[in-house]
Amino acid sequence: MRRFVKLKCLFFTPVLLLLFITACQNNEYSPKPKGYFRIIYPEKKYREFKSSAPFTFDYPVYAKMEGENGKSAERNWYNMHFIQFNGFLHLTYYDVANKAEYDEMVEDARKLAFKHTIKATAIDQKLISYPDRKVYGIYYAIEGNTASSVQFFLTDSTKHYFRAALYFNERPQYDSIEPVLKFIKSDINKMIATFNWKN
Q1: Residue 18 lies in a domain
Q2: What is the pLDDT of residues 71-130, one digit of tens each?
Q3: CA 169 → CA 12, 54, 82, distances in Å?
Q4: Do residues 112 and 121 touch, judged by C-beta distance below 8 A?
Q5: Structural domain total, the chain
């Protein structure tokens, strides 16, 4: 029995040593890169938003409008729910009574966008102007690990004020949401380009 154990040791020791030496010779080790889930985007198709609200716009068919028919807490407040991407575009509308109220709403929009300065790497502002439809506003593109990536407001400067803010129900990680964000930004651009006041 002892002799069998010795033979076994004599046989396995060189084999283990050979494996150890060959395993250590490969210096070209590289860790597996971090990956993300593959995202399958829906086809871009749009429909008109129809409601009792004093505005219309086109929005994607893969988004669900919530808060219609008086289901929201406030009149003419809606959520455009991007179910597949776990994101919401919160939409709010206010009647404007006077210039002081209008100025306050515009300043509130600026404050709410710049509230993200702590985590943002950049906040870009772009003027929105469609004089033929009396649609004016400011678009805030917020980069970095912030709660909201896009905010904007639209107004006719006299009686209408409409504000929107995009949020994802996920921990803010700009790297992982950037492809989805680009996809949704094109929907927001379409929404703004087709936005109209009813009166």
Answers
A1: no
A2: 444 678 899 999 998 899 999 999 998 988 888 988 988 888 888 777 778 888 999 999
A3: 56, 29, 11
A4: no
A5: 1
